[in-house]
Write a structure and sequence with these properties.
Number of helices of chain B: 10
CATH class of the largest domain in chain A: Mainly Alpha
Distance between the termini of chain A: 24 Å
Number of domains of chain A: 2
Radius of gyration of chain A: 24 Å
Strand content of chain B: under 5%
Shape of chain B: elongated
Number of strands of chain B: 2
Strand content of chain A: under 5%
Largest sheet of chain B: 2 strands, antiparallel
CATH superfamily of the largest domain in chain A: MetI-like
Oligomer: heterodimer
Order of helices and strands of chain B: HEEHHHHHHHHH
Radius of gyration of chain B: 23 Å
Helix content of chain B: 55-70%
CATH topology of the largest domain in chain A: MetI-like fold
């Protein structure tokens, strides 16, 4: 229990520090939101009035305190530009990011699991080497370049899939999935490499253990040994990496979202930063940081569940 | 586990309890891919360093009004981009940006990592907790938001992009440096140095640093590849180095507009970046393999 509590306080501290840092940094952004709102040719008095109304002339730390107070009461403020509540804006952009995330991690898993298992089982074989080389190439390719290659091939030449754009889910699941296929693939084709590598090296280590030999002696079929006996103890690092990747993708898929014109959280944030729309930036950063921190926390818990030594504090001495 | 007690020294690489890394020639460090990677990197470095010195028919921002988005061949060896600028010239000058970022940002991170990681691994306790919380804050900070705000506040230039990327990756170096320092901090040779009267600074610089520098260099190479890719990504958001200075990422991003008519405009810089990152990864992989076994 102490393990969990000390983790939670640490994580809260991190969230507070990140949001405060965002506040201080965005305060220095070159764009002037007050001039934007007051309109062209606004007089100095009008500008001052807008600043006063938005509370922009108060000290940064005071504004931060007010904002944190609001967050505790569940109020995230309104966008300075569209006057839309930040929570509504986040709620409308989050599903896009989550769907992209889920699909790309699904593709990455579909590639990494079989490839990792087979190349660990037949490590050193030509198949393993081919997989390894292919993975190495994938890891050296920027996902945006990959995205453009996929667009060129599937959208512009073969005309099978749309090049850009987002179709809402209620306009038909087929059209919706079609729009997500290329962006998800371009993320997955880069992400699967790390997953495959950690799974392969951990599986190779596990396959040398005595209990695998015992399972073999009992005459268990190979697939059962690989999938049931060897996979579970080998997937600790795998789950950690999967969690960390997912966490960093929530705000890190901006470029793919830009290339495919998907209205996700990343797009929302970039637009908000260019317009100096403080409440939206704050809300987005809070959302990303909290989910990053929570996923990491869950990964730690998974770790403890999968490896009893972490939970009980026993280390092999 | 009592690792080294049970088995006596087997190979010349094992002396006492300390296992030395096998020499470079062993385990097929050579091989075509390694030398090809080295050759490519030297070539790119040479081009980037010397491109202004020899006569070249085109400059980076010279517009050829007769050839917009031309295919490779003719007067322009690799064609022109959408505004009629020579791709070879832009590739050569773009190498400067990509390599500056790719070399300086990881070195900055390495410096910060050593400066903060070694003390936190050696002292533990409060020092460690403070430094690691700081590192966690930067790790949890949405990277692109950080870069966007950082470069918009200070104005996008090669220096701010390099610095921003360097800051962003430094917590990872702190973590690696700390983990490696902890591995060595209780070893006998550290205790021997302490008995010999060595101070903390001397222990960090003369005992720990030589031991952790190898793995950290391998990590630096991994990060170098990542940073070159990330700088290119900024080009898609219009936040790479300001035009007319070319960068590979900016060229790829600009090639998107003419992807259908003239795919080489985007494909050529992609290929160059791919080969460079691949070469760095090949070398980094060999280095890492060398230290993982130790």
């Amino acid at each position: 229990m102490r393990f969990i509590w000390s983790k939670i306080t640490h994580l809260l501290l991190v969230v507070l520090a990140v949001t405060m840092l965002t506040f201080v940094m965005t305060d220095r952004l070159p764009a002037d939101i007050a001039a934007e709102i007051a309109g062209h040719g606004a007089s100095a008095a009008e500008l001052a009035e807008v600043r006063e109304r938005l509370g922009l002339n108060r000290p940064v730390l005071l504004r931060y305190a007010t904002w944190i107070g609001g967050v505790c009461r569940g109020e995230f403020g309104k966008s300075l530009i569209t006057e839309q509540p930040v929570s509504t804006a986040l709620r409308s952009h989050l599903p896009v990011t989550l769907e992209l995330l889920a699909l790309s991690q699904l593709f990455a898993l579909l590639l990494a699991l079989p490839a990792g298992i087979i190349s660990a089982w037949r490590s050193g074989s030509p198949l393993d080497r081919v997989t390894g080389t292919f993975a190495f190439g994938c890891a050296s390719l920027p996902n945006y370049a990959l995205a453009m290659g996929l667009v060129f091939l599937f959208a512009l030449k073969l005309k099978l899939l749309p090049a850009t754009g987002y179709t809402p889910l209620n306009a038909g699941i087929g059209a919706n999935l079609k729009g997500f296929l290329l962006p998800a693939l371009s993320i997955a084709l880069v992400e699967w490499v790390t997953l495959m590598r950690v799974l392969r090296s951990d599986l190779i280590a596990t396959l040398k253990e005595d209990f695998i030999l015992l399972a073999r002696c009992k005459g268990l079929p190979t697939w059962r040994i690989l999938l049931v006996h060897a996979l579970r103890p080998s997937c600790i690092t795998f789950i950690t990496v999967l969690g960390m990747q997912t966490a960093s993708l929530i705000g890190g898929a901006v470029i793919i979202e830009t290339v495919f014109a998907l209205p996700g959280i990343g797009r929302l944030l970039v637009t908000a930063i260019f317009a100096q729309d403080f409440p939206v930036i704050q809300g987005g950063v809070l959302l990303i940081t909290v989910s990053y921190v929570c996923i990491n926390f869950l990964v730690d818990l998974c770790y403890a569940a999968l490896d009893p030594r972490v939970r009980t504090g026993v280390t092999d001495g | 586990m009592g690792k080294s007690k049970a088995n006596p020294p087997k190979s010349p690489f094992q002396k006492g309890g300390l296992q030395l890394a096998p020499p470079f020639t062993k385990g097929g460090l050579g091989g075509i891919s390694f030398y090809a990677a080295i050759t490519w990197l030297i070539l790119v470095l040479f081009c980037a360093a010397s491109v202004g010195l020899w006569p070249f028919p085109f400059t980076v921002d010279q517009i050829d009004a007769e050839h917009f988005a031309a295919l490779p061949g003719g007067a322009h060896l690799l064609g022109t981009d959408a505004t009629g600028r020579d791709i070879v010239a832009r590739l050569l000058f773009g190498a400067r940006v990509s390599l500056t970022v790719g070399i300086c940002a990881p070195l900055f991170g390495l410096g910060v990592g050593l400066l903060l990681g070694m003390p936190s691994g050696l002292y533990r306790g409060w020092t460690e907790r403070t430094i690691m919380t700081l590192a966690d804050v930067i790790l949890a900070f949405p990277g692109l938001v950080f870069l966007l705000v950082f470069t918009s506040v200070l104005g996008p230039s090669l220096t701010t992009i390099t610095l921003g990327l360097g800051l962003l990756i430094s917590p990872r170096f702190v973590r690696v440096a700390r983990a490696n320092t902890i591995r060595f901090s209780e070893r006998e040779f550290i205790q021997a140095a302490r008995i010999g009267g060595a101070g903390d600074i001397s222990i960090m610089l003369r005992e720990i640093l030589p031991n952790i520098l190898g793995p950290l260099m391998a990590y630096t190479l991994v990060v170098a590849g990542f940073v070159i890719v990330a700088e290119g990504g900024l080009g898609f958001l219009g936040l790479s180095v300001p035009s007319p200075t070319p960068s590979w990422g900016g060229m790829i991003a600009a090639g998107r507009d003419v992807l259908e008519q003239t795919p080489p405009v985007a494909m050529i810089p992609t290929a160059v970046m791919f080969l460079t990152v691949l070469s760095i990864n090949v070398i980094g992989d060999r280095l890492r393999g060398r230290y993982d076994r130790a």
